[in-house]
Amino acid sequence: MIVALFxxxxxxxxxxxxDRIKLxxxxxxxxxxxxxxxxxxxxxxxxxxxxxxxxxxLIDDREKLYYNEDNLYDDISNQKIWGALLFRADFTAxxxxxxxxxxxPEYKNAVDYFYDEGNHYTSSGVIKTAIRTVFKVFNDxxxxxxxxxxxKLRVSNPENYNVxxxxxxxxxxxxxxxxxxxxxxxxxxxxxxxxxxxxxxMSVLIILVLAHVFLGSKLLKHIQFQRxxxxxxxxxxxxxxxxxxxxxxxxx
Length: 252
Fold this sequence. Notes:
Layout: H1 2-11, E1 22-27, H2 36-45, E2 55-60, H3 69-77, E3 83-87, H4 91-100, E4 111-115, H5 121-156, H6 168-171, E5 176-180, H7 190-215, H8 223-251
Parallel strand pairs: 1-2, 1-3, 4-5
Antiparallel strand pairs: 3-4
């Protein structure tokens, strides 16, 4: 039971209540036509299946341009929202310019996803995966619009419009830029095997303390009790010595 309290309960069913996670979608995209931000709203947030995946909070910020990195991080820190997607004012304009001028190999344009990885490691990973999946589908939708634009440009200017399809704008027209308030060091696969060990010896330590409190100081004189205490201390030292170099190696 104690092991469950320290380890399994926080990790249990991380997607069970995902529909209660509030994710703000801020649309500042001012494009008069082909607006990618509004397309995201119409494609996903109005979809009966997808709109219930998360608790979406749609904000049309095209006039005031109020939201920025600072106040979005403030709302995340104050737990008003879990995270936020920001479609910046010039997003569609940059996309359209990249399609019309595909000779440039660089495509510096992205939708920012603000979140706090330190809020809950497991839930952050689950939600991040869900958003990436949504954007993968969304990119397929936007790519159809991009190729329609390409076909029109080919017809109107067949001699001068040469499309290098290796250009990033055609592979991923709507990149996702992950921006976390607090980052967690990458421990690799070692973390999953180390945490249960920590939970076990922490649980044993708590049991020993409770036994001492409720059974009295005479228990300390019992040889078996002393051996258990010694085992827990040795286990803690060994796990710390073993985990430290492995942890440091994962940070490199």
